[in-house]
Specification:
Layout: H1 15-36, H2 41-74, H3 82-93
Length: 104
């Protein structure tokens, strides 16, 4: 019998384990970044919620602007709404007619 078939197998070093550990660590890091990072899923949900909130506020402000523009037009020199003028004088200046009674 020859001794060639009894040769010991070469030992594998820790290089394979270190490489596997590095791959797992990098994969875990990128998975966490994809979920919780600045551009991750959670951030995207938060940004969409903020965008919806800001859109609602913009719509509310646009409605307020349209209402104020309407009131301004109704009190302008070209178009004077006497009922609105009377209402504004009562509210701002506290005017009352002599035949009215104020209840507080």
């Amino acid at each position: 019998m020859s001794m060639s078939h009894l040769r010991p197998r070469p030992r594998r070093g820790f290089g394979g384990l270190v490489g596997l550990a590095m791959v797992l660590l990098l994969g875990g890091h990128f998975a966490v970044a994809a979920v919780q990072g600045d551009f991750g899923i959670f951030s995207r949900v938060a940004i969409k919620a903020e965008a919806a909130s800001l859109t609602a506020e913009r719509d509310r402000l646009a409605a307020d602007l349209a209402r104020m523009q309407n009131l301004t037009l109704r009190l302008s020199d070209d178009f004077l709404d006497l009922d609105l003028l009377d209402q504004q004088a009562r509210d701002v200046l506290g005017y009352m007619r002599s035949d009215e009674i104020a209840i507080r």
